[in-house]
């Protein structure tokens, strides 16, 4: 346990940030899962719509440091490639 006032404050801040990051990461995963679900259902229109909703969320997570920028680019690229290969 932190003993100094400064260390106690840093522990509080770290916990708040951890919870915020977890919530943002969870929301991000939900948006990605919606796209994947539409792709698996072979519903191209729904997949495109879900992808358009997911891209800003992915970019926002990368900008805030929740995920790495390269991971964001990889997710967008792979989801878009799957959508393009749909009949």
Folded structure, characterized:
The protein starts with a helix and ends with a helix. Helix content is 83%, strand content 0%. It is mainly α and 87 residues long. It has a single domain (5-84), classed as Ribosomal protein S20 (Methane Monooxygenase Hydroxylase, Chain G, domain 1). The protein is elongated, with a radius of gyration of 17 Å. The protein has three helices and no strands. The mean pLDDT is 96.
Features:
elongated, about 85% helix, mainly alpha, about 90 residues
The Rg value, from CA coordinates, equals 17 Å
Q: Number of helix segments?
A: 3
CATH class category name: Mainly Alpha
Outline the biggest β-sheet.
none
Strand content: under 5%
What gross morphology would you assign?
elongated
Count of domains: 1
Low-confidence stretches: none
CATH architecture descriptor name: Up-down Bundle
**CATH homologous superfamily - what is it?**
Ribosomal protein S20
N-to-C CA distance: 58 Å
Order of SSEs, N→C? HHH
Overall average pLDDT: 96
Structural class determined from secondary elements: mainly alpha
Helix coverage percent: over 70%
Quick structural gist:
The protein is mostly helical. The protein has three helices and no strands.
């Amino acid at each position: 346990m932190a003993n100094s006032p400064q260390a106690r404050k840093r522990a509080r801040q770290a916990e708040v940030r951890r919870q915020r990051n977890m919530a943002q990461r969870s929301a991000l995963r939900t948006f990605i899962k919606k796209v994947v679900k539409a792709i698996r259902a072979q519903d191209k229109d729904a997949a495109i719509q879900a992808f358009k909703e997911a891209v800003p969320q992915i970019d926002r997570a990368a900008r805030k440091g929740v995920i790495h920028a390269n991971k964001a680019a990889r997710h967008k690229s792979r989801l878009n490639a799957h959508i393009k290969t749909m009949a």
